[in-house]
Each structure stands twice: as C-alpha cells, then as structure tokens.
Amino acid sequence: MKITILTLFPEMFEGFFNSSIIKKAKYKGLVEYRAIDVRSFTENKHNRVDDYPFGGGQGMIMFPQPMIDALRSVKTEKSHVIMMTPAAPTFTQKKAHELVSNYEDIILLCAHYEGYDERILDYVDEVISIGDYILTGGETAAMVVTDALTRLVKGVITEDSTVYESFENGLLEHPQYTRPVDYEGKVVPEILLSGHHEKIRLFNLKESLRKTYRYRKDLLEKRNLTEEEQVLLNEVISEENEK
Length: 243
Ligand code: ADE
What we know:
By secondary structure, this protein is an alpha/beta fold. The chain has 2 domains: about 1-150, SPOUT methyltransferase, trefoil knot domain (Alpha/beta knot, 3-Layer(aba) Sandwich); about 180-240, tRNA(m1g37)methyltransferase, domain 2 (Trp Operon Repressor, Chain A, Orthogonal Bundle). The protein is built from 9 helices and 10 strands. The protein has helices at about 10-15, 20-25, 65-75, 95-100, 140-150, 160-165, 195-215, 215-220, 225-240; strands at about 1-5, 30-35, 50, 60, 80-85, 105-110, 115, 125-130, 180-185, 185. The strands form 3 sheets. It has a 5-stranded parallel sheet, sandwiched between helices. Strands 3-4-7 form a 3-stranded mixed sheet, with no helix packed on it. Helix 4 crosses helix 5 and helix 7 crosses helix 9. Bound molecules: adenine. Adenine binds near residues 129, 133, 135 and 141.
C-alpha cells in the first residue's frame, strides 16, 4: 500500500514516518509513505498559498491551484483521494477496513489555516473527519488515518492482535493486565491467573460489556447481542446501578 500526504508542513511527518509501527511497515516494504510539500507547487512570486474569503468571513482560505497541481503530480488511475476536513463523515474502524481492502494507493489532502477553497472537493473521491472538534490543520488527522490503515495492512502486526480489539466486534475492549500481580495493593483479577479458558472468556466478555455500557451505550444500541451477552449485560447493569 502507498500513502501520500499533501501538506504545507511535510516536516510534521518526519518523526511520524520514522517511529514505531509506521517505521517497521516501511522497512518491511509493506507500506510506502510520502509527504509532498504543497507550497512548492505555488505559481505566484511570493509562494502564497491562501487569501481572504470572497464574501467576507474569518481567516484565510487555501487556493485550489497549489493543492490540485500537487495532487496531479502524484495521482494515478489507481489513487483514492481523500480530503481531511471536519465537515465530513466521522472516521471509523469500519471505514479503515474498507479503505485498506479497496485501495492500494491512498492520497490524503491536508488543508491548513481556517479552510480551503470548496472547488478542491471536485478533485477528491471522499472527505473524512476524525471527530467533532476542530484541529489547526488536517495533518494530525491524516496521521490518525495513516496509523489506523497501516496496522490493518496484512503483515504489519499479527492478525490476532486486531481481532479482539475495541470496535472490531462492536464493543470496547476488556481491561488487560500484566506483571506484577500486585501493584501498590491493586491486584489482578484472580480469574485471569486461573488458567480456566472458558471462565476467562466469560469474564473478559462481561468486562468488555461493562466498559461499553459505561462509556459507549450507543454501541450497545447498534449491536444485536447474543443470548449469552444479554445475560452478562443484565448482570453488568444491575452491578453498575448498585454502585
Ligand atoms: N481538519 C481540522 N479539523 C479536522 C478534523 N476534525 N478531522 C479532519 N480534518 C480536520
């Protein structure tokens, strides 16, 4: 897979592309990353990339020309072009899977300052927001999407580690523990040390339901629970309401 970022701040990606799993994916040859400097595509003398909005309003608006010329310099017929913007559907784990399964070549456009000329959207395939808040630019959002896609590329991390995670089965992930068994008097739940696989499975499922009930009830409403899950959730609800 190839991920290309079009940005006014390519230097922001140096640390990101050279750390952790992203770096590993690059060295394993599984994902190719590049950050393209949109400013180098300006055609005006002063390398300006933005101007005041027509009709008035706050802030500066990015010109279409440097961004579209940068896009033309990297786009192929295989490319899937995505604009990072808060005015878009929210990114999800499902969307991450969809992008990784369907596209080999993804281009993420980052607008900075207060906005971008709307005509840029005529050159993109879709728009993505990473959440209901406004960032200073699309760069950190593009990092979020790049990170989420990278870990789903086959071979980047062991497949098992993605199966039981939050959102993969419509629930938040259950709590996990490692050594020591006793940390400042806080003790790992005994059942996890028992070696009894079925009891551990039920315990983890119940704790996964508890986290989802506490923090993301909306996920429970969206999901059809199995009979087993419903029984465990009823227990969770009465325990949580007793508190
Ligand atoms: N640019 C600014 N805010 C953003 C957001 N929430 N998601 C994607 N791009 C953005």
